[in-house]
Design a protein that fits this description.
The chain is of the alpha+beta class. The protein is built from three helices and seven strands. It has one domain: Beta-grasp domain (Ubiquitin-like (UB roll)), CATH 3.10.20.30. The protein is globular.
Length: 90
């Protein structure tokens, strides 16, 4: 089954991922067709594209343009986005 074509006004949103999430998706950057939406919309899109990270994604912080963002915050098509999984240390 092929993925649905991107909306006509979509651009590519590059999302940095780290640690175990990067290992699960096979790289440190995701390229997603994006025409704008909220952080929650972004989480849902990433979970659909990469179901193997869905549980980790739910516990991860999202930064948009260098600031932590809440699920309702907007993510513009040209935003600098990072998904930061929880870390533990000792």
């Amino acid at each position: 089954m092929q993925p649905a074509p991107p909306p006509p006004d979509a651009t590519t949103l590059h999302v940095a991922v780290f640690a175990g999430m990067a290992e699960l998706v096979g790289g440190r950057r995701l390229a997603l067709d994006w025409s704008g939406g909220s952080v929650d919309d972004l989480r849902q899109l990433v979970a659909r594209r990469h179901p193997e990270v869905a549980a980790l994604l739910a516990r991860s912080a999202v930064a948009v343009d260098g600031r932590y963002a809440a699920d309702g915050d907007p993510v513009g098509s040209g935003a600098d986005v990072a998904i930061i999984p929880p870390v533990s240390g000792g």
